[in-house]
Amino acid sequence: MTEQTKQAIEPGVKLWLSRGWQDFTRTWKISVMFSSIFLVISLLAYWQLLQLDLGLVLYPFIAGFMVVAPLLVTGFQRVGRMLHEGEQPGFMDLLKGVRETTPGIFFLTFVLCVCYLIWVTDAMVIYGMYFGVKAVPINAELLADPVLRESLFSYLMFTGLMGFVIAQMGFMVGAFSIPLIMHQKMTFVAAVFTSVATVWRHKLLMFRWALSLALLMLSTLMLALPLLVVVLPVTAYASYEAYVDLLQQEDSTDH
C-alpha cells in the first residue's frame, strides 16, 4: 500500500461513521423497520430481567452484545453493497442479506456464540461470588450500602476486564470475516485469517474503531435504548465502509 493510501485510510473512523450516516439517511425507512426487530427483542429482555430484580445481569448481556453484533448486520451488509453499486434497496433486500448466510458464516456464528456464552457464564459465576443467588435490584440502597457498593464495583471491574479480552478476540475474528465471506466468497479459514491480519496490520486505527463502536453501542444499550433503531444501522453501514476502504481498495492498490 502506498503512503498516500495510508494517509487516506488513517482518519477512517470519522469518515466511516459519516458514510454510514449517509447510507442510513438514504435507506432510513427500511433500516428503522429492520432494526426495530432487535429493539423489540431487547425491550422484552430488559423488561423481563427488571421484573425479576436482575438488573445487574443486564450488564454482561449488554457488554457481550459486542461479541455477536457482527452477526446481526448481514442484511445491512447486502444493502451497503447495493448502495455502492448504485442500486436502490428495499426492505426485502435486508431479509435476503440474512438469507445469504453460508456454511462459513454459520460456523462463524457458532464460534462467536461460544465466546458470548463463555463471557455470560463466567459473568454469572462472578455475580454469584459477590451477590449469591439472591436478586439484587438496582436502587439507592445498592450504592448506599458499603458492602453492596464494594461488591458492585468488584463485579463490574472483573467482568469488564474479562469481557474486554473476549470482545477483543471476537472483534479480531468478526470485524471483516462476514463481508469477506459474503462479498468475496472466501472460506471461513481464509476470511478469519484475513480479518485478524487486517486488524493487526492497522492496530491503532482498529483500536479507535473498536472503541468507537463499543462506546456507541454500549451507551445506546445502557442509556438510550430506543436509539438502537438508528445506531445499529449506522454502525453496520459504517462497518461496510471500513471493509471497502481497508480490503477492497487495498486489493485494488496492490494490483
TrEMBL record:
TM region(s), chain numbering: 30-50, 56-76, 105-132, 152-176, 209-238
InterPro entries reported for this sequence: DUF2189
Keyword field: Membrane, Transmembrane, Transmembrane helix
Position of the signal peptide: none
Keyword Metal-binding: no
Pfam family, one: DUF2189
Name of protein: DUF2189 domain-containing protein
